[in-house]
Amino acid sequence: MNTPSSGVPDQVFGPVGPVPAPSIGTVSPLVALVVGLVLGGAVAVTVVLGTRRDFGGPRPDPQVRALPEAAMARRLVDQMDPAVVLVDVDDAVLLANPAARALGIVRGTRLLVPELLDVAHAVRSGTPRRTEVRLPGSLVGAGPRMMSVHGVRLDSGTAPPPGPVGLVLQDITEARRTEAVRRDFVANVGHELKTPVGALALLAEAIEGAADDPEAVQRFAARIAHEADRLAHLVRELIDLSRLQGGEPLPELVPVAVDGVLAEAVDRTRTAARAKNLDIAVGGQPGLVVRGVESQLATAVTNLLANAVAYSSGESRIAVAARARSGFAEITVTDSGIGIPRQDRQRVFERFYRVDQSRASSTGGTGLGLAIVKHVASNHGGAVTVWSEEGVGSTFTLRIPLVADAPAPDAPSSGDAVAADPGKGTA
Asked: Which CATH number fits the domain 176-246, given the four candidates 2.30.40.10, 1.10.287.130, 3.30.950.10, 1.10.2020.10?
């Protein structure tokens, strides 16, 4: 008689005979090993995740994180170069970064520029607006500044109530000045080129009409040669000025003897000086050596001498001299010509600028010579200044750094001079 089965066989038949079956309370070593590995892996994963949470810290609450973000945004606004002003509905200033306060447009909670308030009112009642506002020099503490203003309404919704307005101001004074200089440059170049080209055309017609008059043809041909030289000189100076303003890299600066530069410049202008019965005297401290480009330095001194010759008359003398002072070689060119009015002294280094436009044809200059001198001085780490008195004459001083073993500097001398602005009159 068979007894009911309990679901566990009494024995298992293996390949070699019956094998006793394991009891319920017994676990084979292989199964125990697998279970241990699984449990150990689960514990390890739990520990790693817990460690990451510990290092990363608890997840920040959005409300707690909002305060640092607002502080960082305010710090960013304070560090911005453009001036930023937030104006409330009652025109009170809610926020102004340091750039805005440095412009002097904000005092306490008041916006001091009526034009900016007009922009804020227009933006509050309409759409975002961009415009330009001129800040007076008395307000900003320097010359007048031209500002680009972008106004934005900061509320939201399709038909929101009036809210605060943000004004962002960017200084565009230099950009507008550069645009004006470029416009003047194009206009002046066109005028200067038109004059000799028109003269050449008229002279060509005159020669054609005087074909039977050899003397007239010869006279007109000489005039054509003169206008062609003038045109070539203008083009050459335009090319030189373009190179000096950054069109080409500056050649390597090498030691240059100042005596040689002066001799070359005097030799270039001696013929023009003799034609006007002018004597050029050379003096000063010999043996000075500067670091620069000899051809450019010779051109600069030549232009100073040519300018002195052009605006001198009678049997007068032009003096050119050099001396060492405060680590620089100072090359001075002094004339006893007509002088420069005070209001024109700062502008004589601008391109195409002439103190007396009526003398332009008689002097034969292009108006670029002193601009070239200014850029030569700037590229060599120096400067050019002018002292002048109407009816007495002018003295131009070109300062170029000496080499390390140059002679000891002399004691400084007194005097009032106007320096050329390296950034003025450039494109």
From this structure: 1.10.287.130
H helix intervals, 57-147: 62-79, 98-102, 114-125, 137-140
* pLDDT tens sequence across 213-228: 888 888 888 888 877 8
Q: What is the mean pLDDT of the chain?
A: 75
- Given a cut of 70, whether residue 21 has pLDDT beyond it is no
Q: How far is CA 265 from the centre of its chain?
A: 32
| CA dihedral of residues 140, 146, 152, 153 (deg, nearest 10) | 50
Q: Are 338 and 391 a contacting pair, CB within 8 Å?
A: yes
φ/ψ bin of 78: left (φ > 0), alpha (ψ from -120 to 50), beta (otherwise)? alpha
Question: Per mean pLDDT, which range of 236-240, 338-342, 411-415 is the poorest?
Answer: 411-415
Q: Does the predicted model carry a pTM greater than 0.85? A: no
The residues with which 107 forms a beta bridge, in sequence order, are: 110
Q: Do domains 67-171 and 250-419 have the same CATH topology?
A: no
250-419 folds as Heat Shock Protein 90 (3.30.565)
Contact present, 102 and 118 (Cβ < 8 Å)? no
DSSP for 191-203 reads: HHHHHHHHHHHHH
Domain-by-domain residue ranges, the chain?
A: 67-171, 176-246, 250-419
The Cα 128–Cα 119 span in angstroms is 10
Under CATH, which number does the domain 67-171 receive? 3.30.450.20
pLDDT tens for 275-327 read 888 889 999 999 999 999 998 999 999 999 998 998 887 778 899 999 999 89
Distance CA 305, CA 265 (A): 7
DSSP per-residue string spanning 334-356: EE-SS---GGGTTTTTSTT--S-
pLDDT at residue 125 in the model: 81
* Strands 393-401 and 317-325, bridge-based pairing: unpaired
Token couple for 422: 């390296």
114 Cβ contact partners less than 8 Å away, ≥ 6 residues apart: none
Contacts of 24 (CB under 8 A, 6+ apart): 8
CA distance 165 to 153: 5
